[in-house]
């Protein structure tokens, strides 16, 4: 396998061709946050949290889907990158329901933990939420699209791991939404209890039926700073 | 043998102005006067001067009758009698000099243009292949197939310096070469006719007026890159273009220009029309490809394999715009050097713009690259009508930038427009005058792009919506001064962080209006005034007391009873009650003109 020399954050590194920037960074203990990327899935590139600065590129590039190239000079935590990343999380939070007290996944929520890492507090924007009724007709899965950040992991996981096509994307712009069939509520006929998508969902949008008073999953999130 | 030809534009724009009825009436009259032997009525595409549609042209004299009505048909028919005289009252009048101009070649709107792609639009019948053949149609294809190797064709396109006219400006020759080089026995040529920009209609006009030029360009492209199949991805909202293109393809097939053995040369090529479902983002190459395959049109993240390598159904695909294909026959016929001799050093040939907005001569124009914005707007366009002052011009469709008067010297080419903060884009050109609010304009365009976002990447989907919310707040009088910086920050983030060209350019109208018209934003926020008197929340209607004749009309018509006064008592608007609907202004008799709009929320009671 051809070796490629590149620079990440002023460190001279070498990696096999075909790897993505994110994979090389990971291998070298450089932590790039990502919301839609998961090792088990092919890159989606939708959340844009993993963007990095590549010298001589006008735009920032998504590190999860960009393969490395000879002589690439990459900055994963430059001022510009952090600024855009923070803006992005802020935007996601401004349209997220924010009902963390009640959320079963509050302590294991990836959006929450990235927001904490990036020190994003209250968004400076108008809070503009998308409210959808909770879909709990299926005995296997509870879907609350109000909490969905459209990372599309569920779509990919269902396609690639389960080899099913339960989910799709519909509508445009702010109204875009992960849908089942022709935008039907999820019920027992379309989905079995494989739990694959639930395990991939970074927020509380997909979860299992819980009992009242059940303890939240995960350790309480400690906010550093 | 007909002595005279009456040319009647039958584009969508002409038809909406009544060209169909005029045609029927004219034909009837000509038959009645027994002129059918000497006069031929020919349907053509649009000639581009939409302002004066419907237009009737009499050749060979070159007479142009503007804004013709059905009732004019008998008179026009009589003028075609041997003793007939031209009808002076139908001549076009120059808006500046008010001089009547009988011949179309003398009209400034036309004589400053350089029509290459649009040359045949308005002269030939788009539904008759013989018309196209009569003006040298398919000569380029014959030449290519009999004298040139595919490499020579590509070399010619490269030497011509033609750049993709869909907006990106990528060198066409290099794209063709890349597609040729990729190995593969199955390749595709796709023509992008998904013209989705509000206010742009050049692709439509070419397809409606000269569809064969696009078909010919595509066949040559197919030969050059080694493709056997072509698709035209056209908006379903263009039914007439789809119809005429369909006729053109069928005719070309009949005459052997399309099919398994093109002109007996052994080269096989055919074209199919695919109607898009109306998503703006499908003009982007990867989204268009997905849409053609039947999937949801969403751009693929960069860097991805080029469409020339992995395109439609995973095959190498050449994707070019309608106008790019329409240029090919000229490059082959007149030579790459001829083409390269026009335009500027880096942008060759011509550019087509849809000139609209607050402009005297609205319509479709084709100009050599390098011409300045000033020449387009003031010479061809005739400047701003109604004695108003020019304020800015927006180029490149909804994601283009807005350029102020100081930049009117900017030459039209891909690089200069980008450097000025705008772009060539699809070729929309919207002129605005002093009565246009720049904040409202930015809001309008952003509202369009945010709705058309495919929703894939968070920055474009959410960022543009938040920008719109901020602009809404500013136009409603709820803006904060820090919002300007927030808009810039958000805009820059959306620009550099989004996946495709839509997100990367959507903030342009906002960023460029802040750059050149910041003081307007500041007036909205700090003074709570809309200087252009557009934003409802930041204007007031007042009755000028010494003009008011106390006629009671506005008082009675006001839907919220905000106007006080009585007979012989000057009327006054109660600003607290007024909803700024504008009814009083529209009902106040013109000879009084007592109602005025002033910037800001006037609370002091006048009178």
UniProtKB/TrEMBL annotation, chain A:
UniProt main location, coarse: membrane
A single BP term in Gene Ontology: ATP synthesis coupled electron transport
All copies of domain 4Fe-4S ferredoxin-type, residue ranges: 139-158, 182-211
Transmembrane regions listed in the UniProt entry: none
GO molecular function: 2 iron, 2 sulfur cluster binding; 4 iron, 4 sulfur cluster binding; metal ion binding; NADH dehydrogenase (ubiquinone) activity; oxidoreductase activity
GO CC entries: membrane
Cofactor section: [2Fe-2S] cluster; [4Fe-4S] cluster
Domain called 4Fe-4S His(Cys)3-ligated-type: residue spans: 80-119
One Pfam family per UniProt: Fer2_4
Presence of keyword Transmembrane: no
SMART domains the record matches: NADH-G_4Fe-4S_3
Keyword Iron-sulfur: yes
Localization per Swiss-Prot or TrEMBL: Membrane
Keyword terms of this UniProt record: 2Fe-2S, 4Fe-4S, Iron, Iron-sulfur, Membrane, Metal-binding, NAD, Repeat, Translocase
Domain 2Fe-2S ferredoxin-type: 2-80
Family, similarity comment: Belongs to the complex I 75 kDa subunit family.
Protein name in UniProt: Fe-S-binding domain-containing protein
Taxonomic source organism: candidate division NPL-UPA2 bacterium Unc8
From TrEMBL, chain B:
PROSITE patterns: 4FE4S_FER_1, 4FE4S_FER_2
Highest taxon, organism lineage: Bacteria
Swiss-Prot/TrEMBL keywords: 4Fe-4S, Iron, Iron-sulfur, Metal-binding
Domain 4Fe-4S ferredoxin-type: 539-568, 569-600
TM region(s), chain numbering: none
A molecular-function term among this protein's GO annotations: metal ion binding
Family matches, as CDD domains: TRX_Fd_family
Keyword presence, 4Fe-4S: yes
Pfam families: Complex1_51K, Fer4_7, NADH_4Fe-4S
Protein name: NADH-quinone oxidoreductase subunit NuoF
